[in-house]
Amino acid sequence: xxxxxxxxxxxxxxxxxxxxxxxxxxxxxxxxxxxxxxxxxxxxxxxxxxxxxxxxxxxxxxxxxxxxxxxxxxxxxxxxxxxxxxxxxxxxxxxxxxxxxxxxxxxxxxxxxxxxxxxxxxxxxxxxxxxxxxxxxxxxxxxxxxxxxxxxxxxxxxxxxxxxxxxxxxxxxxxxxxxxxxxxxxxxxxxxxxxxxxxxxxxxxxxxxxxxxxxxxxxxxxxxxxxxxxxxxxxxxxxxxxxxxxxxxxxxxxxxxxxxxxxxxxxxxxxxxxxxxxxxxxxxxxxx
Length: 288
Fold this sequence. Notes:
Blueprint: E1 10-19, E2 22-26, E3 31-35, E4 48-55, E5 61-64, E6 76-84, E7 88-92, E8 99-102, E9 119-126, E10 132-136, H1 139-145, E11 157-166, E12 169-174, E13 179-183, E14 196-204, E15 210-213, H2 218-235, E16 239-240, H3 248-255, H4 259-271, E17 275-278, E18 281-284
Parallel strand pairs: 13-15
Antiparallel strand pairs: 1-2, 1-4, 2-3, 4-5, 6-7, 6-9, 7-8, 9-10, 11-12, 11-14, 12-13, 14-15, 16-18, 17-18
Helix pairs in contact: 2-4
């Protein structure tokens, strides 16, 4: 394959010339520079060398003997190395040049853009100007790479990374290789693209994909709600004008929880002897 047809791919080339700053490699028609900073090898003339071809910041084709896992058509996880508003996010594929996922391929809302350290499942694409860009894995690719869950996986705790976001929910690729969906009702906040999240499997569908909840299990949620009520009581010196007959909208506005959840948590605290109610108020019970 010729050099100009192999950008973003791995190719075998022959060492044509050696210079102070590196080597010129050839396919018999074109030459490309392998800079000395891009190889640890001492190459002899007319020997064959395996390289990855990319375009530098000036748009010139360049070579490196560092072979990345991610090439055109080959998918893998890559870490976000930088985020630039108006441009996009840059990802580290293991070579000296980071690759760009353009703003046009990112979510419309920047609040769910990836952050540095997040992981994306990607491949590379080459445009008409021979520039290399990142391409996110689509649903058909995730379908191809994923494994099927079984009913035995129901209610298991899982973790994974968000590979697609939307208002209705988020799609996750788990460490086990499961493809999952997180409905908006099963998350407290919308996770970022590329964010690592932890949850549990709440349904296994016939096609082996899963539904996931990021909400805490009932007992965990009860603990968190009780802690929130105690925290607010402590902030108010042990008394608050809320009790189990308060209006649902007042409870939602103040505690960000449903009245049912509020009553469950309050009931637990009273049963444990930590609080008591009196004339529309709730108080922390002082030690005798």
